[in-house]
Design brief:
single chain; alpha+beta; Helicase, Ruva Protein, domain 3; 2 domains; two-stranded antiparallel sheet
């Protein structure tokens, strides 16, 4: 194996928040290509998240976001397994980012499984519907190269515990 430059490990760690060991391993597997390594780490994060979904998440935080002008606001509940994670600044940033995402793109559902069969049955382009109306499928407004699901997966991988977006409500003046 070739030696991975320390600068590349630092850059990948800053991009993904993965551990140094995971960054080094991903860079080895991708022959030093940071873009490929980032994709590998996201994939691993989603795999780890899938394994942890069975565990109970009974801690967490409620995030409130009111957009400039006080015309749109969101209340969001994101749960974690421990209060240690719920109080972590990165977890808090995640909840703020997701609340802002909901304000900006107004999803209707959290995940594709939440969409009623009769509604998705009427759609010609089901994938486009999911990307537009399901929060986890939407491109992250701060980094369109990843989805909210990818962002969530990176947090689950980092903290090694189940984190889930439980529910949200979006208010907009004049909407029912």
């Amino acid at each position: 194996m070739t030696k991975v430059p320390l600068e590349a490990i630092k850059e990948l760690r800053n991009l993904t928040c993965a551990s140094i060991a995971e960054c080094k391993k991903a860079l080895h597997e991708s022959d030093g290509d940071i873009k490929k390594a980032t994709i590998l780490l996201r994939k691993r994060g989603l795999e780890i998240a899938a394994k942890k979904q069975e565990r109970a998440a009974k801690e967490g935080r409620v995030e409130a976001y009111v957009h400039l002008g006080n015309k749109v606001g969101v209340l969001l509940e994101v749960d974690s397994e421990t209060d240690f994670v719920a109080r972590n600044p990165e977890f808090a940033q995640f909840t703020k980012d997701v609340a802002m995402q909901i304000t900006a793109l107004s999803p209707t559902y959290i995940k594709r499984e939440d969409v009623p069969a009769d509604i998705i049955g009427q759609e010609k382009d089901k994938e486009l519907f999911y990307k537009t109306h399901c929060l986890l499928e939407q491109a992250f407004v701060k980094d369109p190269s990843m989805t909210i699901k990818d962002y969530l997966g990176s947090l689950v991988a980092k903290f090694s515990e189940n984190i889930c977006i439980r529910r949200f409500i979006r208010y907009k003046i004049g909407e029912n």
